[in-house]
Amino acid sequence: xxxxxxxxxHPRRNVRLxxxxxxxxxxxxxxxxxxxxxxxxxxxxxxxxxxxxxIALSAWLNIALRLRFHLxxxxxxxxxxxxxxxxxxxxxVLIFLTGGLQNxxxxxxxxPVLLSATALPPRFTIMLGAFAVACATVLVFxxxxxxxxxxxxxxxxPIYMMGVWLSILLAIGFIGVYAWQITEESRQLADALAxxxxxxxxxxxxxxxxxLAAAAAHELGTxxxxxxxxxxxxxxxxxxxxxxxxxxRLLRSQAxxxxxxxxxxxxxxxxGEPFDRTPLTSLIEEVVAPHRNFGVSIDVSVPDDRSDEPxxxxxxxILYGLGNLLENAVDxxxxxxxxxxxxxxxxxxxxxxxxxxxxxxxxxxxxGEPYVTSRRRKPGKDDDEATGxxxxxxxxxxxxxxxxxxxxxxxxxxxxxxxxxxxxxNRHEFERLLSFAPT
Length: 439
What we know:
Elements: H1 6-9, E1 15-16, H2 17-41, H3 48-68, E2 74-75, H4 77-97, H5 110-119, H6 122-141, H7 158-207, H8 209-237, H9 245-271, E3 277-279, H10 280-288, E4 297-301, E5 311-313, H11 316-332, E6 336-343, E7 347-354, H12 383-386, H13 392-402, E8 406-411, E9 419-426, H14 427-431
Parallel strand pairs: 4-6
Antiparallel strand pairs: 1-2, 3-5, 6-7, 7-9, 8-9
């Protein structure tokens, strides 16, 4: 996939300023409501003006950002991280004024870290998580008293406070890592599906070349007929020994040759061979042919009796999928790759095996997922050639499954070694399969 580089796999993660501003306004409203309800509604003493000043500072930052920047602007990751760090610091000061970790709202330290885990690179999430933990640690020992009834003050034991601190620490670590992993997997899957659609579109364009060839033959037929007629008239009018007589005869012969070529293209498109339908063995040979000159022997085995051989569509999805699996086998094989095709009245099976190192046991169950490197390289393979995005099997598996195939991946049984990929189609579905088009 030369069009998809590592930069596509790890795109720049820019956060919309509008997202951060809206979330901060939500925090301002929530914090103001909580402080006023505790101070006025519950009649608990707390430094109300200091709390409102801290909240007002957060609101002032939102107003300043609104005046200075367009809300549709996307922030660089480092700038977004600074804004999230401000949110952590603002929350820490507010909790410092209202009881420290005794305040049940202390768990809101998780919010900015969780947002960073879903939108920013991991290094910024780690730094913000460390900053949040540092603030929580300070608040264990330094804070104003929790707003409470003076006649019956609430006194929490130190071991309980250590438990609260530890729970905040574990929540930041566990939920942050979990959110990052889920977001990363979703991002990778979206990239891989986009790559699949690009490949599919390309193959669909190739499958439409027969129609374009027929259209070209139709459009070019009339002017070539005119050229042929004029060339024939010139040939008859010019004496045989004239200086340009040979040139005219050559012009006529070449025009006739062009007409013959266009006639063949028209016949190919109308007959359906090889553009529309083709026997299974011809389909396999078309896939195998480009890989025969890579220093690896490729043996194709088919039944001797081919009287009832399946004939299906020359499907771009099948061509690309089989080609990708075969290329992978050739890449990892030591000396030999074997392609075995067999069929009966109900099923069609194609097995591709090699004598390479086989699939790594720890990822055998995950083959077909995006960005999973399927196997160990054979000894002597250059490291630069060993790098890849892990999209090959994902794209091949996706395209083949959309054509109706089921795939299984395994290692060959001892004493043989190497990988074995088996594809199965329902014969009826395979033979009625039309050219594949993306949906």
